[in-house]
């Protein structure tokens, strides 16, 4: 343990009799001092003894260090001598090696011509046997030496290729035809390869393939291998999965058998594509090509996708330098006849399918689509009828039907989404933006024009005139559904169309087309906003039917029990419903714009309505209560201007009840100070006591 002086002193004091407690009766400082002095002397003696021992060890260490240094010097000298001997030995070995190499070159120069001469002699001997018509050599008669025979035949074949044509013809006419033997041996090798493949003997296959490599029939050997590999490989319904498994298995084996595995594997893949896959694709597509466009397109997309997925898996294998181009050409060879006119089939199907979806919907509603004009005289008549209450012809009764269907929209968008996916997969990259634009045009035609635009036109034609009683305002429902549908349309535009055209000139064309659609719809929506006239008309009918003159000039001034009139209650209830409907039907800034217009018209209606009555003192109080309720209703608009208008109207109503002496003070208040004096006068004139000289004098 580490030495701590304080603890050591404490232990020493504790062991000393009379030194264990301070200030106690047993404490003896003299004895403790004596003990410390004695202990210090012992430590000094111990220190001197240890110091002598250290000095002795240092001397011994110095002596051994000198001896070790001397020994190291002797070893260095010995090492230098050994290194010199090693250099001499290395030089001697190099000299001998040079001599041996020179001698080997000389021997090789003598032996190589001799070996060639021996080989030539053997070939001449075998050649002579062919000329004699009798093969006596063991290499030709022993079936186990087929490899050596093949080597000899190959060499003789090369020699025969160099003979003059006349001599070659004579040679081929001998009883034992050399070309015939060449062919027979080649067939034997291929048969041996086939048998070895069936037995699964990889080493024998590799050996025979190496021999056949120099024969003309080597390619036939590869063909046989490819054919046998496919036996029993395509037994399931999924030809693509079978092909992938087969190629995976062959890829592991082909490198152990052939010296050029990438070529053999590429040939196998080519055979699979051009025979198995092409036949399968043709059977699947030709069945529906003319009879069922929907199934044809689904099958084409599915087959092309599965083929490209198979191609992606095959990219893992070594197929040569440009395997991407190789596989692309194979895919193109299968599908080229189907992809050339793909977009025409797609557009034709999309057009007929979309028309059928719409027609099926209108048939379910027992509705016959009618042609509704959208411009010129009819537009002018509609606007005049709505704005002037002149009956210029009856509006179309839609019976509350918006003629917009979420189901129809989802079906159209789903069909278009699938078309975009097929277009992305099946179109040539150079034609992709153009084809995507054509599909988008179909969506615009059937969703935006034939469905949404038709519903808006029908809704506009169904807007009742402002003087209609109990009119149902379904156009806001049309606006609400059209708004929801267009959000779905916009989402598909961004999610599925934009990725296909984002880097092409078609992008600006699509954006412009979308902008035109939005503007066209906004024009119709703006025209439909004249629904506000109908709302105001309904409110006029409520006020005319429910408001009585005695409401504001009761017969018994002291017996008025109501807080606000029945007309006010019904108008506020109607307004709140319409405000909620507007909020649900629109979004963004359109809500505030329409609510502000509605609020201004609502204020004008109440202002003009109040101007039609004269007010007693209690009637004026009731009018103030009505306006307070109208103002509370105006808060639901959440439009500052509308609330300010009703605040001002509420302040004007105070003129109906204020004491004549206070009229000038009220008129100069914050809310009324900036109003025209005629407006203030018009409200004061509504008081039943206006004609009194006192009131007229105070107001003037």
From TrEMBL:
Residues forming the Exocyst complex component Sec10-like alpha-helical bundle domain are 148-699
The protein's matches in InterPro entries, at most eight in alphabetical order, are given as: Sec10-like, Sec10_HB, Sec10_N
Record's keyword terms, sorted: Coiled coil, Exocytosis, Transport
Residues that span the membrane, as ranges = none
- Asked if the Swiss-Prot or TrEMBL record annotates the protein with the keyword Transport, the reply is yes
Biological process terms from the Gene Ontology for this record are:
exocytosis; Golgi to plasma membrane transport
Q: Per the record, what is one GO cellular component?
A: exocyst
Query: Per the database record, which ranges form the Exocyst complex component Sec10 N-terminal domain?
Result: 29-137
Q: Which residues form a coiled coil?
A: 40-78
Membership in a protein family: Belongs to the SEC10 family.
Which protein is depicted?
Exocyst complex component 5
Organism listed in the record? Geococcyx californianus (Greater roadrunner)
Name of the coding gene: Exoc5
